[in-house]
Amino acid sequence: MGKTARVLMYCTRICPYCTMADRLLERKGVKAEKIHVDELPEQRVEMVRITGRTTVPQIFIGQTHVGGYTDLAELERNGRLDELLAPQP
After folding, report:
1. Taking the model in full, what pTM does it have?
2. Under CATH, domain 7-85 is a member of which superfamily?
3. For the chain, N or C: smaller number of CB within 10 Å?
4. Which residues pair with 9 in a beta bridge?
């Protein structure tokens, strides 16, 4: 896969759902930019502020807040993840 949309993932190093999301994205040829909120507590506060959610992962593709792993996996099952990952003009 060529260039894709920017993917940002708020995560922790010990979260199994974060690992599963990362693996799904890697299978798509995408390397997510990660913000480890277990190491940067101020970023957890920011994550909650912008998403309204306290759980990780919280994933953004471009400007779109996808949600967590189950939301990402649902997009993949519905065939919509590739569309979101495509670079925007």
Report:
1. 0.93
2. Glutaredoxin (3.40.30.10)
3. C
4. 34, 59
